[in-house]
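INTERNAL TRANSFER SHEET
From: sequence group
To: structure group
Subject: Purple acid phosphatase

Please process the attached sequence and return the structure record in the designated field. Keep the field labels unchanged so the import script can parse them.
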Amino acid sequence: MGVQVEGGFHSPQQSSQKKKMRGKCCKFLMAFPILWFLLFPQLLLSEENSYVRQPAGQLVITPHGRSHSEPQQVHISLVGTENMRVSWITEDKHAVSVVEYGTKAGEYSARAEGVHSSYQYFFYNSAKIHNVVIGPLEPATTYFYTCGGSGPQFSFNTPPSRLPLEFVIVGDLGQTEWTASTLKHVDSSDYDVLLLPGDLSYADSQQPLWDSFGRLVEPYASKRPWMVTEGNHEIEMFPIIYPQGFKAYNARWPMPFQQSASNSNLYYSFQVAATHVIMLGSYTDFDTQSEQYKWLQSDLATIDRVKTPWLIVLLHAPWYNTNQAHQGEGESMRQSLEKLLYLARVDLVFAGHVHAYERFTRIYNNKADSCGPMYVTIGDGGNREGLALTFKNPRSPLSLYREPSFGHGRLRIVNETHAYWSWHRNNDADAVVADGVWIKSLITTKACSNTPDIQDTPNEEL
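Return from structure group:
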């Protein structure tokens, strides 16, 4: 990894005294190379090209500019194949949990009522959290809607029922200047569903930051479904008082876990246009005797791969990682669950946690395997902690592309056999496609098409 210092240390115009001072400074920095990372992270170059990476952006606090009765923090998520959950918050405790919607702007032919809740976290009392499930809805259709009978009109597009289908995948989002840049780049090109493998608001128990995050993402999350799973920054556990954690996350971002027979909002699955997506929980039990393991085994057994040729998994802590950051944190989960995914012929596994981008080849059990999933780390959405700059060297032959830069990914599933994955690096006002690869569905690959019955495979054989 190179270092680019503009002007160098030995300009002929400098005085001899300045030369000596800079010479001493240079020797000091060379003696302690870690200081380069602390003092000049923006000057470190990518392994792949000469792009100069940027430092972490400043925190963006998004204020509430509407009345107490008007909806804020509006976001939507899929519920089954024909319904959508609309979630929002009002400061008015008397606001109703009602959504009016229709296919023409300003004309609402349907109405649905839902539920509301609130929660307390130490001295913080949340506003009223509304959740309304609407539908049945037609695929690939634009719907207009209002929340609670007041406030602005919103709209969303339902995903198609058939391929092609496009996902946006972005992890470790946060709410910084780089988050805003990532979201702007995501919004510059259409897509169907956004997938987020953990670390949403980076509130870390500062509950008002959950509200700020909700307002920041509303322009995007109110018009395309956001499907999320938890990261370590969602835990917000406190001994004795909040021993279970995830109080704010579960209240604010309910996912359709019941529809996939899960008993926890921390792991679930859903189906969309010939694609089955599984959202796993890195921060709840996952050993072979756990509820999550048993649920995953059962969920994989229900998938008809003739009708569903694409199988995708998301989780937070990566199982494969050549970055120095968070080494080995996903290993115990890998040892418990990896063979289930391999036997099911999972096509791709996306993870966050590491604040960099890395794409691996197809892998199983730490070896290249043409019938294993392709692993991608994409924890570079815009977090406040900065980038994970240091990768292990020499590079593992399993790692095909790695770069510590902010950005987002897109998975366009073109048809039953082929999809295209691309990673879009944030580069000032533009998003630059820095990495891309065509992917073939494993179940349509002759050598990988024969899969055992997972439900009938004893745990000890896994």
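Handover comment: Residues 16-31 form the longest helix (16 residues). The CA atoms of residues 129 and 252 lie 7 Å apart.
Transfer complete.
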